[in-house]
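Ops channel
N.P.: pipeline sanity check, posting one input/output pair.
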């Protein structure tokens, strides 16, 4: 009976298993290569023989990985907090407050979400250079204090799934809109807020383009994504150490998603309940 059950499980989840293998193969390749010696990586071998545990020590000795991690944590963490402070109220207003031009505002949010960021980079860079903050985190962090189009869209869709009766009851009890948002909507929207936070954190953690523009001339402000690219350029032949740094850069993302996956999936699923 056990083989039959296993075959039935494989048959029912064949597509998901195939996609899982496709996504896992590059990860496994990076991890295995990180344990290979410099000569073995050039032979096309798939399994380390022997395991070079010293690659990770060499990575810490030759690159300021701790500083890169700290910079990425500051960049991603602060940007996520700023996004929540600015985007949650806007999404609530668009979803639950009757405004005359709410449809126009939401249409503008959609346009901003679809607009390529490269279109606005030149005037934005000139503005930040005028304020003399190029080389710091401020050009990367401060824009999120003025809202994030994708986060507003995602949170609005989730807020629409919250029954209006709860909000009407809170208004009848004399709560202000801020009180309703903080006491009623936010506690009920934790999965959606968590999903938006994870999206923002991952986006900033993996961001290479922004640090390339604003912090590339200041090595003390390099995040892990830009630091990894710089490390690859200076150690282009030592693939074992390069893959060790890559594995270390990926580890925090995997850990965060592992512990938050249930809330994340719930938030993404409930976001599409209403449109």
């Amino acid at each position: 009976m056990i083989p039959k059950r296993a075959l039935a499980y494989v048959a029912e989840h064949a597509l998901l298993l195939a996609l899982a293998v496709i996504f896992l193969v590059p990860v496994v390749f990076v991890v295995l290569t990180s344990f290979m010696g410099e000569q073995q990586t050039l032979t096309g071998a798939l399994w380390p023989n022997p395991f070079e545990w010293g690659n990770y020590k060499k990575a810490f000795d030759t690159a300021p990985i701790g500083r890169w991690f700290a910079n990425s944590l500051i960049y991603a963490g602060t940007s996520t907090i700023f996004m929540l402070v600015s985007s949650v109220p806007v999404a609530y207003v668009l979803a639950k407050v009757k405004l005359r031009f709410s449809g126009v505002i939401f249409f503008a949010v959609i346009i901003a979400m679809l607009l390529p960021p490269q279109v606005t980079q030149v005037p934005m860079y000139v503005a930040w250079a005028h304020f003399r903050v190029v080389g710091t985190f401020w050009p990367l962090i401060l824009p999120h204090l003025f809202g994030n189009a994708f986060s507003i869209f995602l949170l609005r869709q989730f807020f629409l799934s919250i029954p209006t009766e709860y909000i009407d009851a809170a208004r009848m009890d004399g709560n202000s809109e801020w009180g309703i948002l903080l006491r009623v909507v936010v506690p009920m929207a934790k999965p959606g807020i968590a999903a938006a936070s994870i999206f923002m954190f991952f986006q900033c953690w993996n961001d290479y383009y922004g640090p390339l523009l604003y912090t590339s001339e200041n090595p003390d402000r390099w995040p892990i994504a830009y630091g990894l690219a710089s490390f690859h350029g200076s150690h282009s032949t030592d693939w074992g150490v390069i893959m060790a740094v890559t594995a270390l850069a990926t580890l925090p993302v995997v850990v965060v998603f592992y512990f938050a996956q249930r809330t994340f999936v719930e938030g993404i699923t409930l976001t599409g309940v209403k449109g």
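N.P.: looks fine end to end. The radius of gyration is 23 Å.
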